[in-house]
Specification:
Number of helices: 16
Helix content: 55-70%
Structural class: mainly alpha
Strand content: under 5%
Order of helices and strands: HHHHHHHHHHHHHHHH
Number of domains: 1
Oligomer: single chain
Distance between the termini: 22 Å
Largest sheet: none
Radius of gyration: 17 Å
């Protein structure tokens, strides 16, 4: 799940106004992605004493927990969430994707830069965003979301304060290279579906141009067509309910932290 998915399932948080999340809260909501701080957040984001930014990070981590690990909170995290359970939809296309990208001159090598499991589950979770983009239900929010995440450098002091909350060195060159690459991909998005498409383009080592976007979107559309709307609506409801319950303090992992 990527930007649209997190924005959508965080609209009904007991602790935050929907308008705030979409219009002003996206830099906090998406912090684990551009800070690359998921392992820390999976362990430490669950406090009910968190400030506003911390509550949005918790919402992000709850959504990621559900899609990666499922809704079992009694045991330690295991890769048994929807993205892993359904990755067979696309895993057979793993080598084809990289070979096609190389043949089209979109990357430097036909050798995959990610594992079969890594590529497949990412394509599945990003398909949630592709489905949401198809429905058009976040079209009105596109420009405001892009403005917030596509200009992290213009809000460097705020971003650095967020980094410190995640125990990330606030002015580390490596941290900012990662954050600014993320921000660039958001800034060059032309439409809602481009957020996840460009996220995948960057993750899988392709150029940022139109042909790379088309290649990824073709694969995303194949997934969405096969999974179909009923299943996406079911998982969006389940994930929204889970994120709501986490925000309300009704669902907290007994063993927080990433898979061991």
């Amino acid at each position: 799940m990527y930007i649209l998915g997190h924005a959508y399932v965080s609209q009904n948080l007991p602790s935050a106004d929907c308008g705030f999340v979409i219009n002003d809260g996206m830099r906090a909501l998406m912090l684990p992605d551009y800070a690359d701080s998921h392992p820390f957040a999976y362990e430490h984001a669950w406090s009910m004493d968190a400030d506003q930014a911390g509550r949005l990070v918790r919402s992000h981590i709850a959504g990621d927990w559900w899609v990666h690990f499922g809704d079992n909170l009694e045991e330690s995290a295991r890769r048994r969430g929807w993205a892993y359970l359904r990755m067979g939809v696309v895993s057979r296309k793993y080598n084809d994707f990289y070979q096609e990208a190389y043949d089209k001159g979109l990357c430097d090598s036909p050798e995959p830069n990610d594992s079969l499991r890594g590529w497949s589950h990412t394509m599945m979770e990003y398909s949630i965003d592709t489905y949401l983009a198809r429905t058009g239900r976040l079209d009105d929010s596109f420009r405001r979301v892009r403005e917030q995440l596509g200009n992290l450098a213009g809000h460097a002091d705020e971003v650095c304060s967020f980094f410190e909350q995640q125990q990330v060195r606030p002015w580390s060159q490596a941290v900012w290279r990662h954050a600014l690459a993320y921000s660039l991909r958001v800034a060059i998005a032309d439409a809602p579906e481009d957020f996840a498409v460009l996220g995948a383009v960057g993750k899988f080592g392709l150029d940022y141009g139109a042909e790379s976007r088309k290649l990824v979107l073709d694969y995303q559309n194949m997934i969405v067509d096969e999974v179909a709307a009923d299943e996406y609506e079911t998982i969006l409801r389940a994930m929204s309910d889970f994120v709501h319950d986490v925000d309300a303090g009704l669902a907290i992992p007994a063993v927080p932290g990433p898979p061991r």
